[in-house]
Amino acid sequence: MMIPVRCFTCGNVVGEHWDEFKARAREGDENPAKVLDELGVERHCCRRMMVSHKDLVDVVAPYQ
Ligand SMILES: [Zn+2]
């Protein structure tokens, strides 16, 4: 499942970070907040894009 390329709120590009975020925070065992800090996703609106997307995947995944 793909994430929108840009943050809906500020237009910052977040899609390029999604693969690494997913690998480290979702499939790995790292703290999502720490991964976002290291990726340079510092605005709350952009972080919300990544974190809420993760939650959505968890909700949808059992039905795929
Ligand atoms: Zn943003």
UniProtKB/TrEMBL annotation:
Q: Which UniProt keywords apply?
A: Cytoplasm, DNA-directed RNA polymerase, Metal-binding, Nucleotidyltransferase, Transcription, Transferase, Zinc
InterPro entries for the chain: RNA_pol_su_RPB10 (IPR023580), RNA_pol_suN_Zn-BS (IPR020789), RPABC5/Rpb10 (IPR000268)
The organism named in the record is Halogeometricum borinquense (strain ATCC 700274 / DSM 11551 / JCM 10706 / KCTC 4070 / PR3)
Q: Gene3D superfamilies of this UniProt entry?
A: Homeodomain-like
Taxonomic path: Archaea, Methanobacteriati, Methanobacteriota, Stenosarchaea group, Halobacteria
Cofactor note (record): Binds 1 zinc ion.
Give the gene symbol.
Answer: rpo10
GO molecular function term, any single one? zinc ion binding
Q: Where in the cell is it found?
A: Cytoplasm
Query: Quaternary arrangement and interactors, per the entry?
Result: Part of the RNA polymerase complex.
Which of this chain's residues are annotated to bind Zn(2+)?
Answer: C7, C10, C45, C46
EC supergroup of this enzyme? transferase
Which reaction is this enzyme known to catalyze? RNA(n) + a ribonucleoside 5'-triphosphate = RNA(n+1) + diphosphate
Note whether Transferase occurs among the keywords: yes
Query: Which SUPFAM superfamilies does the entry mention?
Result: RNA polymerase subunit RPB10
Q: Name one Pfam family in it.
A: RNA_pol_N
- Name this protein carries in UniProt: DNA-directed RNA polymerase subunit Rpo10
Q: Which co-factors does it depend on? A: Zn(2+)
GO BP: any one term: DNA-templated transcription
EC number in record:
2.7.7.6
